[in-house]
């Protein structure tokens, strides 16, 4: 069969898996109302379309028009234990309204006229599509920079990791920044390979658009600066010429947000923009450690994810390696990390969403390196054993696990010894290590899918802390 | 390459300024159609897709608002079911007894007229029988409605 056709079919399978997992029970989990931002974002879009005025939920005191209302969309007041009314403000300036225009626009086209019509069943639909597009972009980035297999492995991880799947359904701006960020990475990679300005120009346009979903999308601008300086050097004229060209195109697009604010109420817009910087810094000095320790979905809902912990370790491993080869990937995580710390306020889970595709790609790189080279087999085997333990622990409880504990003890110890043994031989290729990595990987993806099948509304209430 | 980039930047700026102006004037013009009444309707109108019920004990509002300016609303139905809710008075457009009931019914999707003025229900406000449905319901008030036994 034609190799290209096989590759395309493989990508389609990955996308099919991604779409299937994201679409199943998308309207029920996460429980609608656990983040009312989902509705607020859509109301902003729907109200711009129907009223000519953005109306949404906010906590800022600087708004002139503020009132409380009970809006019982999806009967959230029957399911979510908070009897507080929603604080509604207009014109709404908390964030750029672009994502709201997408989800609110979809709701409008589906017949929604009132805020209560914007149910999770309607407004989360575009997020399922956006999430799947993000998976495609992960595949493409991996493919361009590391080869087809890395693209597929990274894509499969990002397509199936439970926390990623669940989070991708939420109407949070970060889920729209993700595809922009990945697209920017792809375009920067193309520019570095070909030195053709059209790629840099397109990357600049995409970076500008990213910041129209949320201002933290300026991480794309930072990424470009870091990549260009990293590639050509701080003292290189070419680097600075490229940076200036990039920013000259991208920053005015970010400025379109000002057009939105000035059109309604310039004074209030400026006040809200600056009050963003006065937010309570709830992530605290422990922010970086918490990113690794806790994987949040909302402020209060956690779902510990071994995949992401392994991803952080993979990123650190790549940092110590070939700078040129891993420049974009390492810079991307660093760029968003800087943005996360600078822009940080409360420890809302969605602020961390853009890390996840990057960490999944980092792990994918290590997995494929281990497949291709026996000497590189140990890190992915150890990391995947880490993930295996975490995946198993959430599928069966500790009591049910006891009959298997001896097999586990011996099996994991043997697995770790086996990973060490990869250093004892001289041959570059040894099929046994390739087989171990592939088998482990397939088992882990299967366990991801198995776990996602288990996550029902009842399970959510009982087990997701 | 430098000249080519300068041309691109100039073209990009031209497009970006045009889009900026389109957004600015477009939104300003569209904003002229804004109406506070229409906004209120958008916020409070019950969705046609939401189920309505005539059973006041079927739904309650979960949790307690973080305020001392609250109203408690309790329904005690025949058969032992009950529904107990606490709401923030600030979320009520009108705080007369009629206004509170209207808002409570709207929030939960209750069929309005079954209870108000009905012989099957007796309602008390802070332990006293309701004499005037336009009476003001103050902070920390409790409204209790009990479904009376069927005398037939």
Provide the spatial order of strands within the biggest beta sheet of chain A: 1-3-2
| Count of the domains of chain B | 2
Tell me the Rg of chain A in angstroms.
Answer: 23 Å
Low-confidence stretches of chain A: none
CATH level-3 fold name of the largest domain in chain B: Ubiquitin-like (UB roll)
Order of helices and strands of chain A: HHEEHEHHHHHHHHHHHHHHHHHHH
Strand content of chain B: 15-25%
Greatest interface and its participating residue counts: A-B, 50 and 56 residues
Task: Sum this structure up briefly.
The complex is a heterodimer of chains A (465) and B (152). With 465 residues, chain A is mainly alpha-helical.
Please give a structural write-up.
The complex is a heterodimer of chains A (465) and B (152). Chain A has two domains: 37-123, no CATH class; 127-463, no CATH class. The model of chain A has no long low-confidence stretch (mean pLDDT 92). Chain A has helices at residues 3-23, 37-51, 76-79, 98-109, 120-123, 125-146, 148-160, 162-168, 173-194, 197-210, 219-232, 237-254, 256-275, 287-293, 306-319, 323-343, 355-372, 378-395, 398-401, 405-421, 431-454, 457-463; strands spanning 56-57, 65-69, 86-90. Chain A is mainly alpha-helical. Helices cover 68% and strands 3% of the residues of chain A. Chain A contains 22 helices and three strands. With 152 residues, chain B is α+β, with helices and mostly antiparallel strands. Chain B has two domains: 2-34; 70-147, Beta-grasp domain (Ubiquitin-like (UB roll), Roll), CATH 3.10.20. Chain B is 34% helix and 18% strand. In chain B, strands 2-1-5-3-4 form a five-stranded mixed sheet, with no helix packed on it. In chain B, β3 (121-125) and β4 (128-129) form a beta hairpin. The relative contact order of chain B is 0.14. Chains A and B meet through α2, α3, α10, α12 and α13 of A and α1, α2, β2 and α3 of B.
